[in-house]
Protein: Acyclic terpene utilisation N-terminal domain-containing protein
Organism: Jannaschia pohangensis
Amino acid sequence: MPNPSTRVLVPAGALGLGWDDAALEAGLARGPDLIAIDGGSTDSGPSYLGRGVSKYSRAQTKAEWATLIDAARRAGCPLVIGTAGTCGAGSAVDWLLAITREVLAETGQGARIATLYCDRPGLAAEWDRVTPLPGAPDVTAEALAQCTNIVALAGVEQVQAALATGADIVICGRTTDTAILAALPIARGAHPGGAWHGAKVGECGALCCTHPDAGVIEILFDDRGFTVTPMAEASVATPRTVAAHLLYENSDPIILHEPGGHLDVTGASYVAQGKSVRVEGAEWVPAPYTVKLEAARVAGHGIMSLVLVRDPRYVAQIDDWCASLVARAKARIAARMGDVDYVLELRRIGVDATLGALEPGTAVPNEVGVLAQVTAPDPAVAAEVAKAVNALLLHHPLTAEEPMPTFAFPYSPPEVDLGPQYEFVLHHVLSLDDPMDGFRLEVVDV
């Protein structure tokens, strides 16, 4: 008979962020059926997917992963990670698999390990099944061929297939953040709306509670909904903190799209129960099965410079100063280098470097850090352009007749080589007849 009651322990929002050790032990004492943790995100930009590497320290990852492997062994439950190695590319899955083997060898343990690979190197052959999402860029065959890594975001079905192998440890490539939490509860008969809703709430650990740095939470799923409970003694879940998580990384706080349908939380209710919150009323709406695609390619070579502008007159007129500097730089580069391909961007740290034209603030800062970034297909061109901009960042005046100003470089040389710069290419979904189409599952006993 199905058992809709499933206890999932989430140690943190991502492997590599750490957690409160006492909270983890408190969660283990409650007998979890699964320990699930996310391994990555697109939050830090396309470079990690483009290169197929993790943003987190290997030493930190290994130490935390070893703790979770031991925790799952003591709890007698599987351990699942989604989007391994930040990006979920096959190379990142292999990276974490190698770490897992090291941990098991060093601790004298054995385990069955299932690896789920989500790479789509042959996407061009499936392009007739690809649909652009609103705002998606036009993708040429050339652009697709230039992608260094292409992945499809797995849902609960692929994670369920991995768990069905009897694996002690499941290392997934790119998954939706919610899939690793919802997979087992749905397989065991939990309410599908409650499973997806609870998975969304719990995806980032204690971010849905007070004291979010504590990391560890428990989600108890059943046939009507779910209950979220923080494991740190000082942490509390409230209806506000739980409901607010539907705003996190979601353009619509009511609808959440996933492979095979969408979650609708219109009818959800949130009831405080001590330090826990009980949630019911969300609905799962099935739809044709599609998976989201992600890909990255090299956009050019990057060089960065930073100058500090403190003169009150220049700070007050920083818009004019930046605009005239860019115009002068472009004219100088054209005269000296000809028609070269590059992009020059100035970001005003302390003014609008984060939001750009959307910045609502009007306060005048004491100083402004002007971050100049040059991107060009040719690294030599990027370096030449950056050096041409150097003198202007240091001495460019607001008006031609005034004394020559001097601004401050915080380091020398001011040019920092950023290396290859990547850009996301896809904002599309792929239609599948079978959820496992194109996904690869491997199992090894160590």
